[in-house]
Amino acid sequence: MESEGKRPLQVLNELGEDFPRDLMKYKVPIFLYHSLIDYLKTCYALENLNSKETNYQTFSTKLGLKSKSHLSIILNGQKLVSKKLSQKLTNFFELGNLEAEYFNCLWELSRAKSLEEKSIIQDNIHHILSQSNSASALELNRYHFFSKWHIPVVLKLVTMRK
What we know:
Blueprint: H1 8-14, H2 36-50, H3 56-63, H4 70-75, H5 83-92, H6 97-111, H7 115-133, H8 140-147, H9 150-159
């Protein structure tokens, strides 16, 4: 399947009826990401797959952002996520305590300047990951995300750069 240059919804339609249409019920597992921007791009792609009308402007509106281009600027790496937006995103994605703590570490890492600062944050990230891996059962929404192999694969495909 050639997906380059196609909107995610076009790729989704080519997958046929077996691919679930209501993808927003699948929570993107944040612990798989080492970059805040990559996580946000995947969440945006998931929302984009779910709706024909979703674009940066409509997603920005759902997040409660005043500027409709703000999200696009952030996802393109031209601006960093503010602390206020970081808190909005944590609430919007309904992150649990450990997930929110991890999200916050990714946010801090994206803003860190010195190697010492980055090292401390990386240590915090490893500590959180060790706590998250100690859970013996998958949350139901994570199970649904991984129960069909093509969901994470398609999300990765639509978030890849051209």
